Every structure is written in C-alpha cells, then in structure tokens.
Amino acid sequence: MTHIHPVVAEVTARITARSRPERTAYLHRLDEAAERGPARGRLACANLAHGFAASGPVDKAALRGTVKPNVAIVSAYNDMLSAHQPFETFPAQLKKAVIRSGGIAQFAGGVPAMCDGITQGRDGMQLSLFSRDVIAMSTAIALSHDMFDAALMLGVCDKIVPGMLIGALSFGHLPTVFVPAGPMTSGLPNDEKASIRQRYAAGEIGREELLEAESASYHSAGTCTFYGTANSNQMLMEVMGLHLPGASFVNPGTPLRAALTDAAAARATAMTTWGESYTPVGHVVDEKAVVNGCVALLATGGSTNHTLHLVAIARAAGIILTWDDLSELSAVTPLMARVYPNGKADVNHFHAAGGLGFTVHSLLKAGLLHEDVRTVAGHGLWRYTTEARLTGTDLTWEEGTKRSHDTSVLRGADAPFSADGGLRMLDGQLGRAVIKTSAVKPEHRQVKAPARVFDDQADFLAAFDAGTLDGDFIAVLRFQGPAANGMPELHKLTPALGVLQDRGQRVALVTDGRMSGASGKVPAAIHLTPEASLGGPLSRVQDGDLITLDADAGVLDLHVSPYDLDARESATADDSRTFGTGRELFHAFRGAVGPADQGASVFPTPDHLENPDG
C-alpha cells in the first residue's frame, strides 16, 4: 500500500482530533439505533398496519413477516428537470431488484429538486441554497417511520445530493446507496456555448440565436454535461464510497445504466443487518472519506459550492471540516482534469478518457487518497479503480485503465495540468473568501483596482448595458450572503465580466454570494464572510476604495485604514427583496443560518466551532 502523503495524513489527523467529541457522540447515537432484525419488528401492530395498508398481497405478507429486510426509496424525481426525469421509472425497477435479492422495498418519500440553471438571475434563486436543508429534512421525514433497514437515494443535482446525504446521516445506522441517473449525451461544444453567451452579452447576436445554442447544449434527459455542482456531486458520491464503482457518468437509458441501478438495489439489500456486510452510512462517511472527497474535488477542479456542502455534510456525521483544511489540501493536490468551465471537454469526454477509475488509481498511487475506507462496494477504495462492464446481461467490474486516453482532458497525478488544486482561500481586511483559480489564467490572478459597489446583480448588469463600466475595477456585489437573501448564485455576471476582461480591462468580483460550479475565467472572491448584512466590512466599502485581490498570495485587502473604515456607517439591505416568489416563507431560515465557512446551514453548530483548533 502506498504511503499516505504527509500533508493529507496531517490534515486527517487534525480533523479527527478536532472532531472527537462530536464524532464520538454521533457514533454512539448510531450504534444505539442499530438493532439487529427488521426495524418494523419494533412497531406496535397498529403502527405496522398503517405502514403496509396500501401494499399488494405479496408485499403485505412480506412486510407482516420478519424474514426480509425493507429498503426505503427516496427520490428527487420530477419531469421538468433533465437530470431527475430518468428517475420516473427507477422505483419500480429498484423494487423488483430488491425482491430478487431477497428483500422488500417501499417508496418512502420524495424530496424537492430545483434547478439553479432555470433560476439563475431570478428571485427563485434565493431559495436554492436553503433547499439543501429542506431536502435534508424531507429525507429525514421519509425515513422517520422506522419501517426500513436500508435506503436507496435517487438524486443528482446541486443541493439535492448534499441535502439527501445530510438527511441520511441523521439515520446513520441505515446502509445507504446513492443511485445516479447519469449525464446527458454531449451536445454543443462548451467553448462554442461560452462564446455565444459572450457575444449575446456584447449585443452582437439576438435572443433567438442564444436560445438555439442553449437548447443544443442542454438537449435531453440527464445531467448537464459541464463540470458544475451536479457532476461534482456524482464524483464525490463515488470517491466517498456511496455510489457503486463506475456508476457516476454512465448515460441514462443505456443497458449499463439499468444494470448499475439493479446492482445498487441488490447491494443495499445485502448491506442490512440481515446480510453479512452490514455497512451503515454513518461509518462510510468518516474522517478519511471526507478528506478523500476534498482531495478528489480539488484534483478534478470541482464546484466551489462544495466549500459549503462538504463542510455541512461532514458536520452531519459529527466531523468538523474547515476552509483551512481545504486550503492545505489544495496546496498539495495536483489538478488532473480540464473539464468545462476549466477546459473545453465535458464529463462524457472525461469519462471516456479514463474517468474516475483512472483518477482514483492515480491519486492512490500518489498517496493522496486514503485506501483503507469502508464503501458500499466493500472495504478498500481500490475497488473504485475498476470499470463497470456488461458481458451479455452480466454486470462485472474489471481492472480499469492505468493511463489517460486523452491527456488534454485528464492527466495523472505525476504529470498534472498544475501542481495545486486551483481552489484557494483569501484573507484580509474584508474577511475570508474562496476563489477558484483553475480556469483563471495566471496573468488575471492579481487585480488591484478601485471598487464599483452594487447591492443587486441587476444593477451591475444595467451598468454594463449602459456602458458605464469602463477602466479597471473590482465589482463589489454585497447583500448576497445566506442571512441576507439565501446566498444566490451570480453566474449571470460571468458573460458580462468576461466581455470586459476580453476588452483588456482588469476586472474581478468580490461578493458574499456564490458563483457556482461554473466559476469561470474572471477572478471571483466568493462566499465572503462575515457577510454584509451581518455588519461585515463589505457593508462599509464605497465606490473608489482601492482593493487588492491576489489569488496566488491568498490576499484580499481593502486599502482603507481600519480607523476610517470603522467610522463609516454600514449600508443596509433592501428588505423588500426577500418577499414574493416564496421568499417570505424562508424568513426563519435567514435568521438561523450559519456563516459560509461553517456550511451556511440552518442546523445547530457545536459551540466550539468559532475556534475549532483552539
């Protein structure tokens, strides 16, 4: 076995030590809940009768008895969203596969699934991040009936998978397998799509041409093919051992996809206390698995949203992950993939080049991943270096490729695109922020320029359309944090900022909002905390203040004396922007949500998280 990299070992040891009180308490709760035999056997007769009243005669007989495990199915299906539309037929397929494996399955509940691609720049985007915690609670409600011995989670996109995993970890004694649907086939090349978006922003083409390009890109059932949060989710579930090996990036509607779905059902049945390989999800998601997820995210140039989600997921398992941990791991993790927006390829090209099997193999060989972990496929991450294959109708896992088949898309850890993971933390007078540098050219990573302050992205876009954004500047977009308006993504700004940068202006963005997994070629300091609406320094920045953003040095400085800054009155948010389109229903969330560096979650935070290593 390859010796683990010293920084990976040190970060893992620090997380383990820091988390010991919470993790110990979490595992104690898990073990108390993990009684042998069927969960439904502990229900009173009236309770149990309610639990199978609508079942057919065969299922009812199985549920009345105590000789078969019962597997919960929780789904994010809806037929509007391409990534989740394939799940329509999965429950019936999974039920049959569980029965063939000696169990019984019930559809336990659905969770909401919204699309950031549809809500970009709209009021609905302010519900997006909060939907993660709603999904976590919905998952918990689905599992709350104490009827189940394992769970199958059907989810793909941005907040859905993190939310379902947080909910599943609240039932950490249940074995849980995540069941993906796969990406849509490749459409319009990503570099062409990006170029058309910028041409539209510059007024060179009309809406009809833009819509035609977007429709050619997002064209069928399946996950969008760029490497945003949805596909980063799939990568994380695989490398953290919650998918079956090779399951993430197989297209919907294919025989291999169907075989992997059946295999997930069989595996969930075998992992219950009835089987020989009881594997509760709370033991799969441990400190080593969390570190593996971080390293794989960094190595593949994944979504910045996971600087929020991984922290929140870890906390749900009693593990305290910090941005400093991510930053230290990033410094030693090589960037191995170039997938849009960090390159021209999409996830189908990545998968064909060697995909996650090659990625895991190379990172294990470099000592950057922990091999000795529990997974839904069994013990040891080496299982995830294999490739799923169909021989006739038989699903097998064969030894995966040991080389990349396209080094313009995927490279080994020994010959990467860059020496670090391209995700860095910024510190300075304005607070702490995250920046994704993997798509930012080196000559654009340092910007020192006066601030142009906006309190709404519509105001910035209006200034762009009016042609008043001239010269070098750093756009300060504030009151976009979780406590202000739910921390919406601000990806609508990307084409306009790209146009300005291409004109030769030195531009950057500083915001307490998000830029999503599609963070692109313009330097963007995002997730800034403390946020403006809670009185952070961002609330006192004025037009013309000189700001330095230096991604290489990890610096975000405001060139205003602390005395002068403290003397300024803080600006306040426009409260009218949190009403309408359902936003008023989330008032309690905005009041309870924690800061970005603690996962931006509404769930309680351990008291000592303010100084986790103190």
List the SSEs and their pairings.
Elements: H1 6-33, H2 45-52, H3 57-64, E1 70-75, H4 90-100, E2 104-110, H5 116-119, H6 128-143, E3 150-154, H7 160-169, E4 176-178, H8 190-201, H9 207-217, H10 229-239, H11 255-270, H12 281-284, H13 287-300, H14 306-316, H15 323-332, H16 347-353, H17 355-365, E5 374-375, E6 378-379, E7 386-391, E8 394-399, E9 423-428, E10 431-436, E11 446-454, H18 457-465, E12 473-477, H19 482-485, H20 493-502, E13 507-511, E14 524-529, E15 546-550, E16 555-558, H21 562-567, H22 587-592
Parallel strand pairs: 1-2, 1-3, 3-4, 11-12, 12-13, 13-14
Antiparallel strand pairs: 5-6, 7-8, 9-10, 10-14, 11-15, 15-16
3D architecture notes:
- The protein is an alpha/beta fold and 614 residues long.
- The chain has two domains: 6-185 and 220-399, no CATH class; 423-577, Glucose Oxidase, domain 1 (3-Layer(bba) Sandwich), CATH 3.50.30.80.
- The protein is built from 22 helices and 16 strands.
- The protein has helices at 6-33, 45-52, 57-64, 90-100, 116-119, 128-143, 160-169, 190-201, 207-217, 229-239, 255-270, 281-284, 287-300, 306-316, 323-332, 347-353, 355-365, 457-465, 482-485, 493-502, 562-567, 587-592, and strands spanning 70-75, 104-110, 150-154, 176-178, 374-375, 378-379, 386-391, 394-399, 423-428, 431-436, 446-454, 473-477, 507-511, 524-529, 546-550, 555-558.
